[in-house]
Specification:
Length: about 400
Amino acid sequence: MTTTLIEERSPLKPWAGVPIEMSEVFRPHIDTLAEEMIEEILAGIPEYSRPQDEEYARLVRLAVEGALRQFVDLIVDPDSSWEPVAAVYREIGWAEAREGRSLDVLQTTLRLGARVAWRRLAAESEKMNVSRRTLGSIAEAIFAFLDEIARAATEGYTKAREQEAGELEHRRRRLLDLLLAEPSASRQAVADLARLAQWRVPKTVAAVVLYERGQQPFSHPTLPPDVLADINRREPCLIVPDPEGPGRGRLLDSALRDWVVAVGPTVRTEDAARSLRWAREALPLARRGILATDEVIRCADHMPALVVFKDEELVRAVADMRLSPLNSVRPRHRERLVRTLLACLQNGFNATEVANRLHVHPQTVRYRLHQLEELFGEGLYDPEKRLEMEMVLTVWLSSPVSNDPSSEVELV
C-alpha cells in the first residue's frame, strides 16, 4: 500500500514538519509499540525491573503510553498541551532523585525507548513506502520530543534534589539548636536527629560564634559537611566536631576570612552550650578591641581576659580602690606607670624582660618601678595581691579614658 502525504507544513516546531496523515498511521500501533518499549526497558534497565511493585509498573506504563499519544497528538496539533505528559515525567524525575539514582539511568531509558520506537517506525515506513524526506522529519521530531520529556524529568529531578537538600539543611539546623540548648538534650534525642541529619556524633566539639568583618558584602563560607552551621540566624554560629584534630584549626582560618570568629573551648558534645557561652563572651571584647580580631579568637588562649571581664563592674570597683595612689600622677605619665606595672607583674619584675616588652631601656623600667614603690609601698610585691592587681590593671587599661592623654578624670 502506497500513502500519498502532504509535506508542506510549518517547520516552526519539528513535529509540525511531519505530515498530518502520519498520525493515522501511528495511532493504531500505540498499544503494541508501548508493550514492546516497556518490555525492552525492563529487560535493558535492571533498576526498573520490579515485578512486585504494581504502582511503579503503572507509572512506567503511563509514561510510555502517554508519551506516544502525546507525540501523535502533536503531529495533529503542534500547539496541543504538554502538561499531562510533562507532569508524568516530572514525577518520574522526582522519584529517581528520591531513590538516589542519577539522571544517567533515566536518560539511558529515554534513549532506549526512542530507539525502539524508531526501529518499529522504520520497519512500518518501508512497508508503506514513506519518503525519505518524511522519515527525516519524523526522526527530527522524535529527537526534539525526547529532549522535551527529558527536560520535564530533569525539572522533577532537580526539584526533588533541592527539596531533599532543604530538608537535610533544616534537620542540621535543628540539630545545631538541639546541641546548643540548655539544659542539654538527651543523648538519644541527639543521636536520633543526627542520624536524620546525616551527621556522625563526635566525642568532642567546639562552638563558634561570628560576626561580619566590616561593611562589605561577605562571602558565604565553604565549610566541610561535618561542620554544623547556621550563618543566617541572628547570631551566626557553628559547631566544629573534633576541633583538636589534624588541620581543624587551619580550617576556620581559611574558610572565615570575612568574619570575626570566636571559638569556644573544646568540650564533650553534650556540653556544647558551655563552649558557646565562652565564645559569646569573647565577641564583645573583640568589638571593643580588647581581643585582636586579625585572626581567629580561641577562647582557650584568652581565658584570663575572659574571666576578668566576666564581671567588669566588680573589677572596676576594686580598681578604684587599689589604684587610687595613681590619682596624684598626671594622666599621660599615669598610663606609662600602669603599663609598666602590669608588665612587671606578668614578667616577675625582671627589668630586662619588661623593657623588651615595652620597647624601652631597662633603666627606664627601674626608674618607673621606683616611682611605683613610692606610690604603693611594700604592697606592690605582695604575692596575695598580685593576681588581683593584674586583673584590675587589665580592665583599667581597656577604658577609653585611660587611653586619652588629655583626660584629667581620676580613678576615684
